[in-house]
Amino acid sequence: MPDLGAGPSSYGFSDRVERHLFPEVTTGPAEPSWSPDGGEIAFSMQGDIWTMPAPGVPAGTAGAATAARSGVATAVTHGPWTYFEPVWSPDGRSIAVTMETGGQLDLGLIDVGTKEVTRLTDDRSADLEPAWSADGEDVYFASSRGRGFDIFRLRLADRRIEPVVAEAGDQVQPAISPDGLTLAYVSPVAGRLGTGGIWTRALNASGAAAPTLVRYEESEYRMRPRWTPDGRALLYGSDESGSNGVAIISATGGNPIVLTNDDMGEYSPAPSPDGSTFAFVSNRTGPLTLFVAPIGGGPVASWHRLSVAARKAIVPTGRVRGRVVGPDGAPTAARIQVVASDGRGYAPDDGFARLIAVSGTPYFHTGGAFDVEVPAGPVSIEAMHGFEFEPARTRVDAVAGTTVEVTLRLRRLVDAPALGWYSGDTHAHDLHQGRFGLTHATLFAQSLAEDLRVTNVLVHMDGTRLMGRWADLTGEPDRVSTRTHLLQFAEEFRGSLGHIGILGIARYVLPLTGGVGNTAYAETASDVPYLDGARAQGGIAGFMHPYTSSSPEPAGWAGSLIPVDVALGRGEFYDVASLYSDELASAEMYHRLLNCGFRLAATGGTDNFPDVWRDPPPGSDRTYAKLAGPLSVPAWLEAVKAGHTFGTTGPLVFLTVGGREPGDEIRLGAGAPADLPVVARVRSIAPFERLDILVNGHVAASTPASAGRPGELEVSLTVPVPEGGWVAARVVGPPSALVADSYAFAETTPVYVVRGRTPFVSRDDARFLVQVVDAIGVRAGRAPWRSNASRDAFTREIDRARAVYAALATGAAGPQEARTVAFQRFGGE
C-alpha cells in the first residue's frame, strides 16, 4: 500500500488553509459584491455566481422592480466548473471570480452581458481572492505560486503576472483603495498568533512600499478587509467579541468599532458604492443568509434581509425529492450525496453542503427527507447511515420544471448493538470557525445521520480562542440526546507534544492549552495533570491522532509525549484510527507499547469540525465498544477503559482468541500448548484488502479479502503464542469514497496472553523506546521554561520514563516492577 499520509486534503495544502482560506460551496449566499452603480449584488451560492437587485435602489423597469420585490436571483454561471468569490469590475461589465476547474483553483472573468466565462489563470498553484485595480486594468489576487501564499497582479492587457507582496508567511485577501494608490491585505504579525493582521502599503510602479500595520487580531482567514468608498476606513471580519462579526476601523489604525453584535457569525462585509450601507452574510439561522445594514451598524432589527425567493438558472433545472427509510420502512436520518448531470454535488436550499476532502465526495445530512434543485439530466443519489448499513444508491432523470420522487431503502450489514457493540467517537468537535450556524440540535443531527451512538464533543482552545462553549461541559448527556444516541461534551488538552482527550468529566482540567508561543503558557506542558485529572473525576483519558508518519529513527517519534505518559502508567485509550494521523504509523507505536507490557484500548476518534464545509462527518473514525448491559455514557466509557474495543475508519472486525474477546486476558501455564484458536469476522461497507492476525506486532496470519464474499470475511485458525504477549486483528484496505479517512483500516484491542509468571516484553522495543524518550527530552529541552522548578519537574518525568524502558530492556523486571523502581529512584508515586 502506498504511503497515504494523514489528514484531509484536496489540493495538498494544510488543513487550516483548505478549511478556512479556500472558498466553499454554500447553500445560501456568500461573498457579496456590489455592482458599481449600487443596483445589484453578486454572490456565490450552490457553486455558481448569482446577481440580485439591491434593496432601496429605484428599479429602471417594471420587470426589475418585480424582481427586486420577489427576491429573484439570476445565475451568471453554470457547471461543470464551480465558482466563488465574485468581485464586480469598476465599469460593471465583468465579474472576476475564483473558479474550481477539475482539481485547480484558478481565476476567471465573467462577461455580465453574455455570461461567457474566460479563464484568466491555469496553474497547479492555488489562485484565489481576486480584487480589481481602481482603473479596472489589473486583477490582484492571492496565489501559492510563491513561498506560501503571496499577492500578485495580473495585467489583463497581456495576462502578465507579477508579484506585489512576497514575504515570509502568507499574504492574502488583497483590497485596493478607491483611488488605486494603496493595497490592504492580511499578513502575519511577528510574535503573534493567528493568520495575521490587516496591513496597508502604498502601491507604485515597482510594486508596493513598506507596510503599515492597521489592526492585529488572532484571525483565522476571516478578516477580508474592504475599503469604504471614501478610502478612509476598512470593513473587516472580527472575532474579538467572542463570535465573528463585522467591524470598521480607520485606514490609519486605531480602535475598531463592531457594527454587528449577534451571538452567531457575520462574515464578508462589502460596503455599498455610496457608502451608506454594507452587505454581509450571517449564519444566525444556520445556512448563510444575505443582509444589508446601515454603515453605522446596529442590532439585528436594523438589518435588511435579502431572501432568495426564487432562482433563475442558466440551464434548465428540475427537482429531486427523496426519502430515506430503514429496513422497517420508517424514515431514517442519513448522509446523502446528490451528483447532477454537470458532475457537481448539490444540497437542499436550507441545508449544509459539505465535502469530504480526501475523496472529493460532496454530501449533506438529512433527517429522512430532502428536496434538491439540480440541472436537468441524470442524477446519482447515495444514502449512508454509518458503518452498519449498506449504502443505498439510485439514478434518476431530473426533468426541467418538474419534481421526481425517489425512495432509498437501507439494508443492515450487521446489527452491532444486538451483539453488544456500540459505536462512538472519542474525538468530535462542534464550533471551529466554520461559517455554518451550528446549534446543539444541528450538531446532534449529524450524529443521528451517521448512526453514531456516543459522540464525545471536545471543548478545546485553538491558540487563545475557545472552540466551543464553556457552559456545555456538565458531565451529563446533552438534552438533545435520546435513549439510543448520546451527545456529551468533554475536553481536549492541546499541548505542544500531543493532544489528550479527557472524557466523562464534569469540570475542566485547566489550562486548556500548553506550549503555545507568545502566551503565558509557552512552556512545554506535561500531560500528567490532565491524565490524572480525568481519573480524579471518574473519567478516562487517552491519546488523540497519535502519529502522522512512521520513522526508523527514534527522533522521528519525538513529537508526542505518549511513550512517556504510558511508561508513567497514564492513559486508558489510544486512537489507532484518526483523521489527523496515519493509522499504520500510529499502530506501529501502539504495538511497541503493547510489546513493553502496557495495556491501552484501541479506539477511533475523527477530530472533525462540523461547522466547516470541507470536512468529514463525526464518526468517520470511530470506536466500537462492547457493553454488558444497556447503553449509557458511563457504561460505554467503562467498556473503553476495559479494552473491549476496536477502532475503525469503516470495516467492522470481531475477534475471539481462545473464546476471549478484546481486552480480556488468557493465563496459561508455562508448559501449555503454544497454539491458540482464533476466530475473526469482518463486515465492511468499504472495500478492504486483507485481514491480519497480529501476534506481538507481527503478522501471524493474513487472509485476502478475496477469500470471502464482497464486504464479508471469516477466518478460523490457530496461531502460535509461545512466549505469551498479545493477539489482535487488523483490517487494511484502499482509499474509497465510502471511507472519510485516507484508507480503510480497523484494529482491535488485543487479547492479552500471560504464559507462566513472566509477562512478555520485547527488549528490542524497550531499547528503541529508551531512545525515543531521550529524543523527547532533547526536543522539550529547547523549549522556554517559566522557572527552573517547572523544567526540573518535567525532566523528572522524562527520567522516570527512561528508567522504565531501560529496566524492561534488560529483562530484569516487568512493567509494574520497572515503574516502581523508576519512581523510587526519581521520585513520584
Could you tell me the CATH topology label of the largest domain: TIM Barrel
What share of the residues lie within helices? 10-25%
CATH H-level superfamily title of the largest domain:
Metal-dependent hydrolases
What value does the Rg take, in angstroms? 28 Å
Poorly predicted regions are 1-5, 57-70
Please tell me the total number of domains: 4
Specify the CATH class of the largest domain. Alpha Beta
Characterization of the model:
The chain has 829 residues and is mostly beta strands. The chain has four domains: 15-311, TolB, C-terminal domain (Neuraminidase), CATH 2.120.10.30; 315-412, Immunoglobulins (Immunoglobulin-like, Sandwich), CATH 2.60.40; 417-763, TIM Barrel (Alpha-Beta Barrel); 764-826. It is built from ten helices and 55 strands. The protein has a 16-stranded mixed sheet that branches. It has a five-stranded mixed sheet with strand order 1-2-3-4-26. Strands 13, 14, 15, 16 and 17 form a five-stranded antiparallel sheet that branches. Strand 7 (105-111) and strand 8 (117-119) form a beta hairpin. It is globular and about 90 Å long. It starts with 14 loop residues before the first helix and ends with a helix. Mean pLDDT is 94; it is low at 1-5 and 57-70.
